[in-house]
């Protein structure tokens, strides 16, 4: 018996080739890795900092390494994984750009998801003179873990400037659906962005 | 004394004789040897639920329970082994032995060399972690155990676990390596050397033939143990436990060299109680086994190379304030296992004491152990 996989994780698993080797940064309770192991014979490791999550991964039989992503990926060899995945953690890193570069060194492809700070709700809140409280960003400005939020446009600019190739992109609302409004004005209506990247060449 | 429901209760060690000759790393051969062994729980019909516990520097076969109903202290890892405990004796058949060269009944310096009829003493060969694993494999044969569901050990015990996965890859399903290192550092060898010099330079050492001389190198052994205990605790733990507290309540300095600070009292107590239960020659060879352990050496210093033929799944655990075998050393093991493509999980336990934490029932530590071993038990039962 298993609980249904979060829709964004479902989408990610569709981007992953069967039998591949994966590193999941901030793997939580290991739901994605467990799902991929079951459905796609994927082998891999999760990195996770939280004690309860580590214990949960161990209970689920997931390979979990207790470590802080901000400490870097120096322990992992170049191109040692088919995919390096990070869901909803980019904005909480000290240097997201450097971690992304490290992910692209360690993995042939990188899959990353983040909340879009360009969403209209965020803009409305800022116009009203306050930091936003949205379903995707519920915390207060003083206790949020999110220290490096970005918009779709900002992330696209980072990819362009860093010469990272965007292989796939999925833009979702908070119910993890795509829709006409997102297609027409993505940076206004997308709440969660999923990117698949690789180095050029 | 009423035995707690989660205790294995009163246990009786047994002496198992192995008649198979054992070629040691030093080149010498033991024609046969005896091992003191304790077991807890029941071996299932499929013989698939056996767990081996490897002891550390000063450990022995008495890992859990009591030898007599009025024993004050249980075995050295009683916090983790018993009915309903993380190493659950209602699920596993747990085996623990006193290693070759030990001083608690297994063949070693304090037993008789059958070839000479005299005590082995200093003539007992210096054994290595690899020799221990070879002797433990012969013990497994004797017990009818082809494959261990898990091999578990902390510190020097963790080194035996790693060696098992390298030397007998098909005989270990799960390897639990706790508070260990892939090889010890110059600083660690230095501590061991001071411990050895303390014993070797004791006037009562008599070239290792002290038992025949009717004495024991008590001062040296005591010093060695005192030094060890400094390295088993973190600075913070020592501060919290002893601070600069004085034994006398009057708060006055005595201006002499008697026990004065609480930490002095603690170290002297540890030293004194150790002398009563341990042997100098055994301490010497155990520290040497620590120094020599270096499985990567035969693989061009590539630890991943050493693990490439291993098939076990690994759980590696370290403790945040352990500086004798620091978390960074455990990460070296983990990194090598990842590079070798092995299945591995790693937990760093937020801890208080230091190296000694691996014997403590820290909730997160035991939760991880329990979660891991519950899965091992489930797959061993089927």
Structure description:
The complex is a heterodimer of chains A (201) and B (382). Chain A has 201 residues and is α/β, with parallel strands linked by helices. Chain A has one domain (7-198): Rossmann fold (3-Layer(aba) Sandwich), CATH 3.40.50.150. Chain A has eight helices and seven strands, in the order H-E-H-E-H-E-E-H-E-H-H-E-H-H-E. Chain A has a seven-stranded mixed β-sheet with strand order 3-2-1-4-5-7-6, sandwiched between helices. The longest helix of chain A has 11 residues, at 96-106. The radius of gyration of chain A is 17 Å and the shape is globular. The model of chain A has no long low-confidence stretch (mean pLDDT 93). Chain B is an alpha/beta fold. Chain B has two domains: 14-183 and 294-381, Rossmann fold; 189-285, Orthogonal Bundle (Rna Polymerase Sigma Factor, Chain: A), CATH 1.10.1740. Chain B is built from ten helices and twelve strands. In chain B, the strands form three sheets. Chain B has an eight-stranded mixed β-sheet, sandwiched between helices. In chain B, a hairpin with a 5-residue loop joins strand 2 and strand 3. In chain B, helix 3 (186-200) runs antiparallel to helix 7 (280-292) and helix 4 (218-232) crosses helix 6 (262-275). The interface between A and B is medium-sized, with 19 and 20 residues.
Question: Would you summarize the structure shown here?
Answer:
By secondary structure, chain A is of the alpha/beta class. Chain A has 8 helices and 7 strands; from the N terminus they run αβαβαββαβααβααβ.
Please write out the topology:
The complex is a heterodimer of chains A (201) and B (382).
Chain A: H1 7-14, E1 21-25, H2 31-40, E2 43-48, H3 51-60, E3 64-66, E4 81-87, H4 96-106, E5 107-115, H5 120-127, H6 152-162, E6 165-172, H7 180-184, H8 186-189, E7 192-198
Parallel strand pairs in A: 1-2, 1-4, 2-3, 4-5
Antiparallel strand pairs in A: 5-7, 6-7
Chain B: E1 14-18, E2 22-23, E3 29-30, E4 33-40, E5 50-54, E6 81-82, E7 87-88, E8 93-97, H1 129-143, E9 150-154, H2 156-167, E10 174-178, H3 186-200, H4 218-232, H5 235-241, H6 262-275, H7 280-292, H8 303-307, E11 313-319, H9 327-339, E12 344-349, H10 363-381
Parallel strand pairs in B: 5-8, 5-9, 6-7, 9-10, 10-11, 11-12
Antiparallel strand pairs in B: 1-4, 2-3, 4-8
Helix pairs in contact in B: 1-2, 3-4, 3-7, 4-6
């Amino acid at each position: 018996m298993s609980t249904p996989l979060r829709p964004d994780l479902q989408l990610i698993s569709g981007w992953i080739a069967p039998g591949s080797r994966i590193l999941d940064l901030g793997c939580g309770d290991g739901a994605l890795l467990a799902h991929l192991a079951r459905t796609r014979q994927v082998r891999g490791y999760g990195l996770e900092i939280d004690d309860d999550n580590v214990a949960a991964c161990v209970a689920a039989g997931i390979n979990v390494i207790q470590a802080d992503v901000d400490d870097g990926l120096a322990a992992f060899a170049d191109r040692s994984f088919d995919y390096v995945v990070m869901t909803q953690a980019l904005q909480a890193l000290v240097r997201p750009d450097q971690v992304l570069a490290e992910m692209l060194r360690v993995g042939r492809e990188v899959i990353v998801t983040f909340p879009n700070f360009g969403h209209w709700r965020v803009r409305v809140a800022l116009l009203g003179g306050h930091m936003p409280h949205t379903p995707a960003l519920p915390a207060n400005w003083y206790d949020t873990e999110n220290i490096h939020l970005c918009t779709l446009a900002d992330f696209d600019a980072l990819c362009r400037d860093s010469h990272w190739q965007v292989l796939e992109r999925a833009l979702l609302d908070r119910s993890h659906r795509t829709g006409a409004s997102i297609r027409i004005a993505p940076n206004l209506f997308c709440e969660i962005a999923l990117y698949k990247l690789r180095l050029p060449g | 004394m009423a035995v707690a429901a989660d205790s294995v209760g009163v246990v009786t060690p047994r002496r198992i004789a192995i008649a198979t000759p054992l070629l040691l790393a030093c080149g010498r051969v033991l024609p046969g040897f005896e091992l003191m062994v304790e077991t807890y729980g029941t071996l299932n019909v499929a013989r698939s639920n056996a767990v081996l516990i490897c002891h550390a520097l000063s450990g022995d076969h008495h890992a859990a329970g009591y030898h007599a109903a009025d024993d004050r202290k249980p075995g050295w890892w009683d916090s983790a082994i018993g009915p309903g405990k993380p190493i659950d004796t209602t699920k596993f058949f747990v085996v623990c032995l006193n290693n070759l060269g030990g001083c608690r009944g297994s063949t070693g310096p304090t037993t008789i060399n059958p070839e000479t009829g005299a005590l082995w003493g200093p003539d007992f060969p210096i054994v290595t972690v690899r020799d221990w694993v070879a002797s433990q494999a012969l013990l497994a044969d004797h017990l009818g155990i082809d494959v261990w569901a898990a091999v578990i050990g902390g510190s020097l015990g963790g080194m035996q676990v790693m060696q098992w996965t390298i030397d007998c890859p098909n005989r270990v399903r799960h390897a639990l390596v706790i508070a260990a290192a892939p090889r010890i550092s110059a600083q660690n060898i230095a501590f061991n050397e001071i411990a050895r010099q303390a014993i070797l330079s004791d006037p009562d050492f008599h070239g290792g033939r002290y038992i025949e001389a009717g004495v024991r190198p008590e001062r040296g052994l005591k010093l060695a143990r005192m030094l060890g205990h400094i390295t088993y605790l973190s600075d913070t733990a020592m501060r919290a436990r002893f601070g600069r507290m004085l034994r006398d309540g009057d708060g006055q300095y005595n201006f002499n060299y008697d026990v004065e600070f609480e930490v002095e009292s603690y170290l002297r107590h540890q030293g004194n109680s150790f002398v009563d239960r341990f042997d100098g020659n055994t301490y010497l060879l155990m520290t040497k086994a620590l120094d020599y352990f270096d499985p990567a050496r035969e693989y061009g210093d590539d630890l991943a190379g050493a693990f490439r033929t291993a098939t076990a799944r690994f759980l590696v655990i370290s403790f945040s304030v352990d500086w004798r075998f620091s978390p960074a050393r455990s990460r070296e093991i983990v990194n090598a296992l990842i590079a070798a493509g092995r299945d591995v999980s790693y937990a760093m336990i937020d801890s208080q004491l230091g190296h000694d934490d691996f014997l403590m029932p820290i909730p997160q530590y035991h939760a991880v152990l329990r979660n891991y071993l519950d899965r091992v038990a489930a797959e061993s039962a089927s």
